[in-house]
Write a structure and sequence with these properties.
Layout lengths: L1 H35 L9 H4 L6 H7 L2 H7 L4 H33 L11 H11 L1 H29 L4 H24 L15 H34 L1
Length: 238
Amino acid sequence: MKDIQKIIRFDYLTAKPLGLPSFLVVAVMCFGLSLFFSPIICGYIIFGAMIFVIPLQGMADKNGFNKLYGILPVKRKNITRARFIYVFLIHFIAEITEIILALISINLKLYRILPNQDSEMLQMIKDSFEDNHLTFTVIVGMFAFFCFCFLYMEMMGQIFGRENEMKIITISIGVFVGLIAGFLWLSEHGIIPIFMLPSMPSSVSGKIILAVAINIISFLTSIIFGEITANKVSKREL
């Protein structure tokens, strides 16, 4: 576990010079806008957190970190596992940040100081502040979606090579879209029953339980993807 913690810290310090300023800029901008226009805007802070992940492999290749990993007294599998947990943690921290800032925005309701309070636009803004259900659905939903996407991309990139990453992702998206289209076609023609996605619970306790469950599933996904990748990579290097 200590090995994994060291590698996570190393990855963070590697991405920090580029990632932290970008994250802070995006967070401040989104929070500022959310105070006056909609707490949902806090959900876009996760795009700033992606800078902690996206350039990491390129920076590692450019600076020869892969060779450094090879001489560190750390098991190769733990290096791979750490990267997946790191990806989860970055998205998790972004999600928590979004929730905290959204709650501040909802409670302050600074839209009340804007002019033309009777306008249609202000009414829409007011509705967005009152619809907490949608705000937290967007935040948790975007966390789950992007966390899974980045974990999947990391797995594909490490197993099949970064040069084939975009090709694999394109094929994966095509397969996914094809499956969804086929499922919808079968549903429309009554061949299979229509499946309705469950909505987020209306109660606060229900929202918390569901959000915790989604985070646990995302964490377990990072563990599973990390283990699969670690085994594949270690076999390839034998």
